[in-house]
Amino acid sequence: MIQILYTPGKGNTERMAEEITRILPSGEWEKEIITLDTEIKPADLYLIGFGIRRNTLPYPVLQLLDQLENKRVAFFASGALGSVEAYKAKIESQILSFLPDSCNYQGLYLCAGRLSQDGMDFFREQLNGNEAALRQILVQTVNHPNTEDMEQLGLFIRRLL
Fold first, then answer.
1. Rounded-to-integer distance, Cα 106 and Cα 98, Å
2. Is pLDDT above 90 for 34?
3. What is the pLDDT of residue 42?
4. Alpha-carbon span 51 to 56, nearest angstrom
5. Edge-to-edge, what's the strand order for the sheet holding 104-112?
6. Is the pLDDT of residue 116 over 70?
7. CA distances from 48 to 8, 68, 126, 134, 141 (A)
């Protein structure tokens, strides 16, 4: 059994969760939205999805990580800078710092996601109002997750099976 758990948001993570359900054999998975009181169910693999806001993991995901002692886990996420390797490394280090040491960590799939107004405001502030740099980020995220992102997600998931 595979448990797919994800946080709702702007729709990117839900689209990714739906793609995962198309890849997995029918009847061998359950999908659930993560809330503050989510308790995990017995499974062979936990796929945990989230959207990245302000370069941090969502609080419900952080709460869930404590329940994953001795579990096999992998993550899928979207964020404005998903195509930047240093960004992925930062998010992955956050996951690993909160994930119990006993977990069998299988990796993180991270793709670019559409940038929300809050995200634009955040990057505008971080870039000290550099509109050219902000436009470059917007161009990179406007059509994501796209078909190629979903294909790469599929490859990531198939490697786990």
1. 15
2. yes
3. 95
4. 9
5. 29-33, 2-6, 45-51, 72-79, 104-112
6. no
7. 12, 11, 28, 29, 22
